[in-house]
Amino acid sequence: MLTSDILLADLDVHGILRLTLNDQDRRNALSEAMLTTLRVAFEQASADPAVRVIVLAATGPAFCAGHDLKEMTAGRASDDGGKTYFAHVMSLCASVMQGIVTCSKPVIAEVTGVATAAGCQLVASCDLAIAADTAQFSTPGVHIGLFCSTPMVALSRSVASKHAMEMLLTGDMVSAMRAAEIGLVNRVVAPDELHDATMQIAFKIASKSSMTLATGKRAYYAQREMTLGDAYDYASGVMVENMPAQDAHEGISAFIEKRKPEWQDA
After folding, report:
1. pTM of the prediction?
2. Strand partners, 9
């Protein structure tokens, strides 16, 4: 499993992988190095049968401050004013966000502090998010003349249109409780309860068949981009393929026999 000074990785005996952003000097910004490291980490975790659930956490007072603006500004020194570099970073960032969605393992964000711009995008891209009541969220690009267009993609797929537009157009900071109200996070707890609350749901998910979880996650994100009829046709096909699976047979048998299933993840 990948290890890095800026991204800590710890896999426990239950198959829960904690990936912890650890670049406090830059408020865990999505620098080019951080994005590259995250992309590799999710690719490795997705392919590793020992990993059942991923928790994405952070050290320090900021969960993630978004792109490293000093690094981005330095890119302007190139002959084309930075366009080639900016395109590279945006493409890299998009691959990380899409990698979270396409990762075969459920990903839970554990948010302690502020998550702004691409940091908010990172939270919105995760399957679930648990936040401390001290956490805050924003897409503040409008304050610096740079609309949060890429964070908009993830945000608009997590919260209702008018809530997303309010965040994008005002750039205002949103409290953890408000983030829960609009669906950006699942629940809010006291800071000293955050780790336990996150691990509780991670452990619950990790106890399920990883084959079933991967099937369901893939199907969820695929069907929501379809029309209603196409979604039902697609989901019906997924059920037809899922039913003969070994774990489906085991799960149904265990339910009927009133016992705990023994998953083979197949």
Report:
1. 0.96
2. 19
